[in-house]
Structures are given as C-alpha cells and as structure tokens.
Amino acid sequence: MSQILKQKIKVALIQLAGSSADKLANLDRAKTFVEKALLEQPDTKLVVLPECFNSPYAVDKFREYSEILSSESTSVKVLSELARRFKIYLVGGSIPELDPQTDKIYNTALVFDEAGKLIDTHRKAHLFDVAIPNGITFQESATLSGGEKSTTVDTKYGKIGVGICYDMRFPELAMISARKDAFAMIYPSAFNTVTGPMHWHLLARSRAIDNQLYVILCSPARNMESAYKAYGHSLVVNPRGDIIAEAGEGEEIIYAELDPEDIAAFREAVPVTKQRRFDIYSDISK
Ligand SMILES: NC(=O)CC(=O)C(=O)O
C-alpha cells in the first residue's frame, strides 16, 4: 500500500456562489457552507474553498479587499475557527493579501490544520495575464505580484501540493510536489466560461496522470450577472485520470474519498514513478 497517503480520507469542495462586494457576507457564506458540509458528511477531513472566495475576482478590487495576514486578520480568524471547530484541514481558498513590507498584493491560498493553525500559504505564482480574441482579456499583473515558491504542505495524512488556478497550466509546480511525495495537488481556482470549456478538465486530468496523484479543483459557482463568469465544475480526479466527483455550475458541495490503494494500484500498473529518466532531464530549465 502506498505510504504517501496514510489512510482513506474524505474531502469536501465548496463551490460557493461568486463573491459579492460584501466581504463579511462572503465569509459568512463560506462559514455556513463549511458547517453544512460537516453536518452532511461528518467524517470529512479536508475542506477546500474557491479562489478569491471573500472578494470579487477583479483586478481593480484586489487592493481594496486585501488583508495583511496575521492571527487578527478577518479572514484568518474565520477560517482558523472553522478548522479548529471541526478538526479539519482547510485549504481556505485564496484571498487578496497585502504584504506590508513591500506594499505588494498577492493572490494567496491559506492552509489551516485541525488545530486551526495557519500552517502554510501559497501565493499564486503564475499570474493570469491573457488576451483571447473574442474571448477574455484579464491582467492580474496590473495589480498583483506573483509568488516566489512552490508549496507542499505536511498534514497528518501525508503531503498536499497547493497551487492557484492559472498555476495548474504549469506542470512544474505539480511535479515538484509529486517528487516530494504529495498525494494530492489542490488548486482553488476560478476558470471562466471561455477557458473552462477549453481546458479545465483536460488540465486537471493531465496533472493527475503526469504525477499519478489526486487533483482537486475548487471553483466559485457561475454567476451570469457578474463581470467575471466563473466556470464552476469543481472536481476531483483520481491518480488514473478519472473524474470521481464533479459539481455543476451552481452553488453546491461535492465530496470524494481519497484512497491510498488507488494511488498504489495505478502506480504499480503503470510504474512511471519508477521509470523516470532524471539522467536525461535533470534540469529542464537549461
Ligand atoms: N483565472 C485563472 O487564474 C486562470 C484561468 O482562468 C485560465 O487559466 O483559464
């Protein structure tokens, strides 16, 4: 049996309604839905929220909604209390973060342990700067800065890799976490109605197959009134590349069980993890 995931665990993905202009209302909604998940499936051990769940996903709003991370910051307090109360690992989606040393704004995922401790953060490393003709133009770099590290977090069940949305287009982050023995890559995300149909499922399945681990994407629900129309379709892919849970477009919670046996069985059947040729591609940046 694979040791990288120590036991079966249940995950819940909370596909929250697209965030309103009211940060406290957004946080309250997240709280209500985490409570609902734990009421429906009390054996849930890991809960994931979407990208920018407490603020509008809009370049000109990130600074206004940003928080300096500390135990006193509004969002940290709410998420920490939820993780502690329900004894869950919580990947608290992402929020706009202000770094007081540099005055830079980041799109940052927060990871809490079962005691409510903020155990790691991931600042979106690859910013969503695209211009798709007749599709969508978005430029996160107009107000955000990119993070400087890949993120692999230790939990009592094993390691998880964390990226945010556009980060999933860059296989390197997932590979780094996989090489460190992560059992899952988790991406709080917000694809849209242009790029979602093109690439959402393909990218999730590709990262899972590349690395033979679970891939978890948690999106906001779609809101056709909002300027940014999130794709929805939060999903969980197993190490074989099968989608084992998928949301629709509306607000909902989906659940999946992650099983160490699934990782072990597929890695044994198709042993790419043992067949890699690091002698050929030890440093592909050159
Ligand atoms: N919103 C993102 O960061 C990424 C996205 O929508 C895409 O890659 O497509």
Question: What's this model, at a glance?
Answer:
Helices cover 28% and strands 28% of the residues. By secondary structure, it is an alpha/beta fold. The longest helix has 18 residues, at 23-40.
Structural class: alpha/beta
The CATH class label is: Alpha Beta
| Topology order in helix (H) and strand (E) letters | EHEHHEEEEEEEHEHEEEEHHH
Whole-number tally of structural domains:
1
The CATH architecture can be given as 4-Layer Sandwich
Q: Can you count the beta strands?
A: 14
The strand line-up of the biggest sheet is 5-4-3-2-1-14
Bound molecules: ligand LQR7VSFR
Overall 3D form: globular
Output the number of helix runs: 8
CATH superfamily: Carbon-nitrogen hydrolase
> The CATH topology is what?
Nitrilase/N-carbamoyl-D-aminoacid amidohydrolase
Helix content class: 25-40%
As residue ranges, the low-confidence spans are: none
Sheet with most strands: 6 strands, mixed
Mean pLDDT: 97
In whole angstroms, the N-to-C terminal distance is 37 Å
Strand content: 25-35%
Query: What does the radius of gyration come to?
Result: 18 Å
